[in-house]
Structure formats: structure tokens, C-alpha cells
Specification:
Aminopeptidase, Alpha-Beta Plaits, 2 domains, six-stranded mixed beta sheet, four-stranded antiparallel beta sheet
Length: 468
């Protein structure tokens, strides 16, 4: 009975074709596209047939909660309570995926059929997030088998609406707070910063989407007869955007800029290198806030993006001044930014710069993609303990990210449950999540199996156990 024995069990399961590969392929085959309401039965199917059966086989009790918001996915909570005086660790995964985007994958791959090409394994959900929470399930099982028990209390949440912004999750957890109560949180999602070295992530940036809309008249008018005397909404909006963010991506709206980067965050990021792998895009070194390193720009600063811009009909342009323009914008923001001031700051800026005619539209709450920024302090005992647990596997300290560049439901654990959270990403930057050709690196996932198993073993070992 040992840590090495538990890790060996996990790797044996991973290397067995009838083990991890078979289980993940079966889970990928369930088309859990939460952005399509007609897929709601598949969301329940995934929880009942895949998650419930897997957790109950490990001695967990399971309950599925309906989402309080109509049209959004359910949540499963698996619980294994071994002792009243033991710490409780809450895990997390999401069984939903983005749209499959059939017909757009290379080699005519089917997104719902897992396929291997060398060290890459393709399929929708392999990286985000079925492959990652499947690693956690296998690691927990290996520890139970090796030790006969976990040595700590374990709860594991599987939601099915993360790709829809986790709508309803915060209210659901608040309504069943005692069920979800825990001392700490440990999960895996997203990519590593450096494919060659593990990192811990202690939070996420927040997200706020909004539209800039300019309606000038009822219809288009001949550009030869009217061009030069009719305002063009496309040009007006382009100039408005230019006052908000400059040609190099620097935010010019003071209310959208974060507070100065703290010394502790700078120190955590000083040795971080962004290495996304062979499929990652080339970084534009002059883009973004001047004077910051690339990691500081992504993990410690705000970014304002134009996600879509439409005026006229780009696919079939006609010789007419268009009547309307529409720009979809997104602010990714770090802890310290006031989320309630984002829209008012944009409104004030537009008005002060002569663009009072531009309307600001927010998406409906059911589809706003909104997440709050949240972060566990790098000096928190749980973050420090996790650093030690991972170091015991890899032989040196993992990188520690104050937060990820992306967004997820950390605010649920911070604001509702009041517990510290740490993520251990098992994917990499070039995994094509949210796009055709999503995949995992097989060898990287195998390493992740070792890391996660080591963490769970140490949690239940009296010599290394975390004491809240």
C-alpha cells in the first residue's frame, strides 16, 4: 500500500485499451451540446449513465439536481463521506461541450468518435472537459483500491452548462449549500501555460460581453447618389472603437483598465513562459498593454476584444450606404476591476467622445456569457499545500498562475461556498478546444494521471494530509 502503488494502478488503467480509452470514447460519443436546447436529454444521459454509474461503483452516493433556469443543464453531486472529522475536498468537471461543428474537422473526422493520430487524440470534449474529469475519477478509484479508502471526504460536482456560462449554477448551489459544502476545491480544466511543465491556476478572469449598435435609418441608399452626405454606421463604429482601444490593443477607457499589478502577482508570473505547442498561434509581441510581459498581459491585465463586426452584407455587398452597424465586444477582466462599472464606463466614454448616438446592448441574462473574476491568494495554505503535492510527483515546484486568462465559475466556490480553489490544468494551448479538431495529447494526459493520483494520495496520507 503506497503512493507509488496508487500511481501504478492509475497508469495501468490508462494504458489498458479497455480502460481510460474505452471510457473516454464512450463519454465523447454522447453529444452533450448544451448550446442546443434539444440536447437536454443527452445532458441527463451523460450524468445518469456515465457519471452516476462511475461514481457509485466507487462507493459514492449521487444526486442529480434540475437547473433552476428553464432550458439549462442539470448538475450531479457525488459524495463519499468517510469521517466527520476529515477534511472535505470538492471536485468539479463539466460534461457539456460546445457544438460539434460537424463537417469542419480535418480528415473528415466525426467529433463524436474518438480517433488517435500519433500522440494526439481527437474528439469533442477530449480536452474540454470530459478527458480531464475522467482523469480525476480514475485517480480517485486508484487511491480507494490501493488504500481501501480515500482518507478524506470527497464530493464531486459535474455540471452540464459551463459552455453556456454556468447559468443557474450559483443559485442551485446556494439553494443546496449544505450538500455542496467543503473545505477546499481541486479540479482540472483548461490548458497549461507551458506544455513542458505543470502549473497550478488559482483563479480566473471575469467576462462581460456587450454590443455597440448604431441604427441610422430605415434602409440602405445608393452609395453613388448618397455617399458623402449620409453617415456610414460602419465608419462611425470603427472610429468609436478606435477611441476605446488603440491600434496595438491598449485599452483607452479608464474604467475598463485594472488596478496596478501587485508585487505578489508579478512575482508569481516572473518565470512563466507561454509555450502553447505546435498548433498555438504566434504571439504578437507589440500587442496589448505596453511594458508588460506576455504572461502579465494575459493573466494579470484586462483585454478588450472585438468578437464580431457587421455592417451591410459582407458575403453579398451592394453599392449602398448601410443603415446599421453592430459590433460585439468582450472585456476579460481580473480581480480588482469593478464589474458593475463596466457598462457605465463605456457609456460615459462614448458620450464624452461624441458617440452618444451609439447604443449599448447587453445580451439577455440567459445567454450573456458572464463570469465574475475570482482568485485564491498564492499565499493561502491550500495553494501552498497543492504546490508541495505536485512537487512530490515531478521533483520540482510547479508554476503558479494567479489566474487563468479564461473564465469559469470560480465565483460559485468563492462567493457561495467560501472555499479556496486550485486548478491543475491537464491540456495545452494548442488543443483546439471550442473549435474543430479538439484533441488531447495522450502522453500529457498520462502525466496528468500521475499528478492527480499523487494529489489524492497525499490528501489521505496522515504524513502529508491537508488540515484546513
Amino acid at each position: 500500500m503506497s503512493r507509488d502503488g496508487a500511481v501504478a494502478r492509475s497508469l495501468e488503467y490508462f494504458d489498458d485499451e479497455a480502460g481510460y480509452w474505452t471510457d473516454l470514447a464512450r463519454r465523447v460519443a454522447v453529444p452533450t451540446e448544451c448550446q442546443r436546447v434539444e440536447r437536454t436529454p443527452e445532458l441527463y444521459q451523460y450524468l445518469e449513465e456515465e457519471m452516476r454509474s462511475g461514481f457509485e461503483a466507487m462507493g459514492y452516493s449521487c444526486q442529480v439536481y434540475d437547473n433552476p433556469l428553464e432550458g439549462f443543464g442539470p448538475v450531479l453531486l457525488a459524495s463519499r463521506i468517510e469521517g466527520e472529522n476529515l477534511p472535505t475536498v470538492l471536485g468539479y468537471g463539466h460534461g457539456d461541450v460546445v457544438r460539434g461543428q460537424e463537417g469542419l474537422w480535418d480528415e473528415d473526422r466525426d467529433p463524436w468518435i474518438m480517433e488517435r493520430d500519433g500522440d494526439k487524440v481527437y474528439g469533442r470534449g477530449t480536452a474540454d472537459n470530459k478527458g480531464q474529469h475522467s482523469v480525476h475519477m480514475a485517480a480517485l478509484k486508484s487511491v480507494i483500491t490501493e488504500r481501501g479508502q480515500l482518507g478524506f471526504n470527497s464530493k464531486f460536482m459535474i455540471e452540464t452548462g459551463e459552455e453556456n456560462g454556468s447559468k443557474g449554477l450559483k443559485d442551485l448551489v446556494a439553494a443546496h449549500k449544505d450538500d455542496f459544502a467543503a473545505d477546499v476545491y481541486f479540479a482540472s480544466d483548461g490548458p497549461r501555460v507551458d506544455i513542458a511543465h505543470p502549473n497550478l491556476t488559482l483563479g480566473c478572469r471575469g467576462t462581460r460581453n456587450f454590443d455597440l449598435v448604431l441604427n441610422l435609418r430605415a434602409g440602405g441608399h445608393h452609395s453613388g447618389n448618397w455617399g458623402g452626405v449620409l453617415a456610414n454606421p460602419g465608419i462611425v463604429l470603427a472610429n468609436a472603437i478606435a477611441t476605446m482601444v488603440d491600434v496595438n490593443g491598449r485599452i483607452l477607457v479608464e474604467g475598463l483598465r485594472p488596478p496596478p499589478i501587485s508585487n505578489s502577482v508579478r512575482d508569481a508570473l516572473k518565470d512563466v513562459k507561454r509555450e502553447g505547442g505546435e498548433n498555438a498561434p504566434e504571439i504578437n509581441p507589440d500587442w496589448g498593454e505596453p511594458g508588460l510581459t506576455a504572461p502579465e498581459k494575459v493573466y494579470a491585465w484586462n483585454t478588450l476584444e472585438v468578437l464580431a463586426y457587421v455592417t451591410g452584407n459582407p458575403d453579398k455587398p451592394v453599392n449602398a450606404v448601410p443603415p446599421r452597424g453592430h459590433v460585439n465586444c468582450q472585456l476579460r477582466y481580473v480581480v480588482g476591476t469593478d464589474p458593475d462599472n463596466i457598462i457605465p464606463a463605456v457609456r460615459q466614454h462614448l458620450d464624452e467622445n461624441g458617440f452618444g448616438m451609439i447604443e449599448i446592448h447587453e445580451p439577455p441574462p440567459s445567454n450573456d456569457g458572464k463570469f465574475a473574476a475570482a482568485r485564491t491568494d498564492p499565499d493561502h495554505p491550500w495553494a501552498q499545500w497543492m504546490m508541495g503535492a505536485v512537487a512530490r510527483t515531478i521533483g520540482n515546484q510547479p508554476a503558479v498562475m494567479p489566474n487563468s486568462g479564461g473564465s469559469i465559475c470560480n465565483d460559485v466556490f468563492q462567493d457561495v461556498l467560501g472555499i479556496p480553489f486550485v486548478w491543475l490544468p491537464l491540456s495545452y494551448g494548442g488543443c483546439s478546444q471550442h473549435a474543430p479538431n479538439e484533441h488531447i495529447i495522450w502522453s500529457l494526459t498520462r502525466e496528468g494521471m500521475e499528478l492527480v493520483t499523487g494529489v489524492y494520495w497525499d490528501l489521505g496520507d496522515p504524513n502529508t494530509a491537508y488540515q484546513p
